[in-house]
């Protein structure tokens, strides 16, 4: 483990990949790894890229990598796939477009599925980010594969979240319905050379300026107003402006204190997810399989699930100690 | 509450709607409600409908409602929207296609968002199903809105899961990648009159017969082989065959014991979700806001999240009792 960590710190891609695998699998050595990584972590700017399939997330990611590499920065790409039963390996095979960066020692590309991690995305993503940071990444691009709630969850791991859209892949109302208006720090209309781009930009600007849901969840008192940037990621057009907007967001956040508040909120979610994963693990390793017995009674309609949940907690204290008052009675 | 419950049992739609709202909001009276509903629950056949946007889930649901109503059965429709920040009301407005059933006293239609429920979908959906059962539903159709992991989660609440596809909305490989091959008990190729339907049916049949992932998660020793049914839901074509396949699945499951095993597994997940929600609630109501303090330390890189999680559990025992050995040391 320590050898692996030393190799990852030296920027050896294979070691980085193996450490992310430990995260995916919720390996028993993970706490030790994270403890070793924690001091000094938090240096990299974590940029989330999210949006419906077909908007050009991979192409935009690749274009951003090219731009960042041109400045000599070390870049990590974490493609998070919360819904797939397949692990990273399979997905990596698809990422043909990333091949131009495959041999670059300053780029680390890794896919991650989170099914194996009891703490889910909220626990797995920050741990993987720490690995990429340890490898020296200045910026980590977190790209979500798939859609749905997971998109919103992944954005919670980013310092700056870019919400991507493109003409013909849904309108601004759908973005709002998916809850993405609330999480976007920068909105990107990709494929801006296509029909319908102009009206998409206009609709987005209107919705962002109305901004009621965004105001509620974004840092209170933040002076940041999410811009709408136009790109043609396949040609690189507008990618410089996108990068400038992402950096302007960081500066604004750091000046307002929002940066630190958001990182603390992320830490809060990570801690909670790890604590809950630990409780869940205890449920499953209780002797006498009380969860199975309770499930039988609830499944057959002999017991209600709330009483069963209280009994389960009663049998699985989160810390050791003599049996006291029942959890059922205490609430 | 008891009056509301009595009204719901008498089939009053407004009371049913209000009880589902209690579920959505994780109302403090929910345990009481679920305790009252638990005895005798489990009568209805819960049928999940899942698939990518555009495959015709709503149209298929409507066609199934028509077919079931023709037999005089009482039908519930639960449209679960895990990703939307909007609650049921807003969505119901969209469901123009359902209007033909809106005045039918034998049909209960309700959308449900689950963001308000600390236990998430795993806890909210079974509670909503119990409400619809209490209203007398013989069959409840659970339709997911949106895509992603949530689809797979919702299917976990169904006795029989129908995975829908249509020509032009993605191929069989995408269904496999979304993890839907594993959860399908019946596969439906809707819009079967369109180009590409035949090859879609063929591909699906091949993948289902290969069926390696399905075998792993489906009931061991189950004699059920998921059929591929073709429908044109908008005209009602094939809907009778679909209903027959759904019922054949129930009979096969009941004969093999898979029915009961699956319901117990669902109960297991529900209990666990409720127990974890309770732990989470305790984290958030701890005096002295230790979670905020720990998040600050982890966010600033002064503490690692695993040690923080252990400290959080140490301060928030799941049952009352004198302080014993620390949870951190016990694992």
TrEMBL record, chains A, B:
All residue ranges annotated as the AAA+ ATPase domain in the record: 43-289
InterPro entries xrefs: AAA+_ATPase, GTPase/Isobutyryl-CoA_mutase, GTPase_ArgK, P-loop_NTPase
GO molecular function: GTP binding; GTPase activity
One Pfam family here: MeaB
Keyword annotations of the record: Chaperone, GTP-binding, Hydrolase, Nucleotide-binding
Annotated spans, Disordered: 311-331
Record-stated family: Belongs to the SIMIBI class G3E GTPase family. ArgK/MeaB subfamily.
Name of the protein in its database record: Methylmalonyl Co-A mutase-associated GTPase MeaB
Gene source species: Auraticoccus cholistanensis
């Amino acid at each position: 483990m320590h050898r692996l960590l030393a190799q990852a710190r030296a920027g050896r891609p294979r070691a980085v990949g193996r450490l992310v695998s430990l995260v995916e699998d919720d390996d028993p050595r993970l706490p030790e790894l994270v403890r070793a990584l924690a001091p000094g972590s938090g240096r990299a700017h974590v940029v989330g890229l999210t949006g419906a399939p077909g908007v050009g997330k991979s192409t935009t990611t690749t274009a951003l990598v090219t731009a960042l590499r041109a400045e000599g920065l070390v870049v990590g790409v974490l493609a998070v796939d919360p819904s797939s039963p397949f692990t990273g390996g399979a997905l990596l095979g698809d990422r043909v477009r990333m091949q131009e960066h495959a041999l670059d020692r300053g780029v680390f590309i890794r896919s991650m599925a989170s099914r194996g991690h009891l703490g889910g995305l909220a626990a797995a993503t920050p741990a993987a980010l720490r690995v990429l940071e340890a490898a020296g990444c200045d910026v980590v691009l977190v790209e979500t594969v798939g859609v749905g709630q997971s998109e919103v969850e992944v954005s919670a791991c980013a310092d700056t979240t870019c919400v991507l859209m493109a003409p013909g892949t849904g309108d601004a109302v759908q973005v709002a319905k998916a809850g993405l208006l609330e999480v976007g720090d920068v909105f990107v209309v990709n494929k801006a050379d296509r029909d319908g781009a102009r009206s998409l930009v206009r609709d987005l600007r209107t919705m962002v300026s109305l901004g009621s849901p965004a105001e509620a969840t974004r840092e209170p008192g933040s002076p940041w107003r999410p811009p709408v940037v136009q790109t043609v990621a396949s040609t690189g057009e507008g990618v410089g402006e996108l990068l400038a907007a992402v950096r302007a967001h960081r500066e604004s956040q750091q000046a307002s204190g929002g940066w630190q508040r958001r990182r603390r909120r992320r830490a809060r979610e990570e801690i909670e997810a790890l604590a809950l994963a630990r409780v869940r693990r205890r449920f499953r390793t209780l002797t006498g399989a009380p969860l199975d017995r309770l499930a039988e009674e609830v499944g057959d309609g002999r017991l209600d699930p709330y009483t069963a949940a209280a009994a389960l907690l009663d049998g699985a204290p989160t810390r050791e100690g003599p049996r006291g008052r029942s959890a059922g009675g205490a609430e």
